[in-house]
Design brief:
This protein has 254 residues and is mainly alpha-helical. The protein has nine helices and two strands. A two-stranded antiparallel ribbon has the order 1-2.
Length: 254
């Protein structure tokens, strides 16, 4: 793995059109959030389990991050609609995209032009809480409705019964025209959309730099050295953890 660090200058950014540099910086923020959530969802979904409780914890964490990623991807598309396609920027920079970036922008356009998972989850189950979304769900649920409670503190509390109902409501929401989604298929779909957005974001940011003919960096690229870095596959995000030392550290001393 090689990470390169480049510093960009404020004055250099201010020397290009305001519409361009504000979009450049905002797009970087959106890209960072999607990247972070996508990685966390992967790590949660691939966390090893050894018993039923850990399985339920993994599912609950992954379900939360799935809903969050779907909502953020929908918001990212809305951002492009307003700040890219809704301005002169799309006429300037879309023709400059090629290869993977151009193809993935077409994929995003096709995906968001019709009924899609990201929009459905965002509007019904991502950024608000409502009991209405699970009305009528309970009679059709055959899964165990379990609650896990930690006796001395709350970090390991898990109201798994609630997550089961939300999961069933989500699957019911996404059924249409004979389509029967599974939780795994939804996760894979969101990974695909996140990858499309990452390629488009990288391509657009590179195009902005090239189109303006400005040298935005103020230092030469330099490689970042890490004393220790974990392999990607080694990262896990479990629900159940021993938080005793943390809780004791937060408790007032006698």
């Amino acid at each position: 793995m090689k990470v390169i660090r480049v510093e960009i200058g404020k004055n250099e950014l201010l020397s290009i059109p305001e519409l361009d540099y504000t979009f450049f910086l905002a797009l970087g923020h959106v890209s960072n959030e999607i990247n972070a959530i996508t990685k966390m969802m992967y790590w949660a979904a691939n966390t090893p389990i050894h018993n039923e409780a850990e399985d339920h914890g993994r599912f609950s964490t992954t379900l939360f991050l799935t809903r969050l990623l779907a909502g953020q991807l929908n918001e990212a598309w809305e951002f492009l609609q307003k700040s890219f396609f809704g301005t002169a920027l799309s006429r300037e920079y879309e023709p400059l995209l090629d290869g993977e970036s151009a193809n993935d922008l077409k994929s995003l356009k096709r995906y968001f032009s019709s009924r899609n998972t990201c929009n459905q989850i965002r509007n019904h189950l991502a950024f608000h809480y409502s009991a209405d979304e699970i009305k009528g769900t309970l009679p059709n649920v055959d899964d165990k409705l379990l609650i896990y409670l930690e006796r001395e503190s709350v970090p390991n509390n898990l109201f798994y019964s609630s997550e089961i109902l939300i999961a069933h409501a989500l699957l019911q929401l996404l059924k249409h025209d004979g389509h029967e989604p599974t939780f795994d298929s939804i996760v894979e779909e969101l990974f695909d959309v996140a990858l499309w957005f990452a390629h488009v974001s990288d391509g657009l940011m590179e195009a902005i730099i090239k189109k303006n003919g400005k040298e935005l960096r103020t230092t030469q690229p330099e490689e970042v050295h890490f004393d220790e870095i974990q392999p990607f596959q080694n990262i896990i995000i479990p629900w159940f953890t021993d938080a005793t030392d943390v809780i004791d550290g937060l408790s007032p001393s006698a």
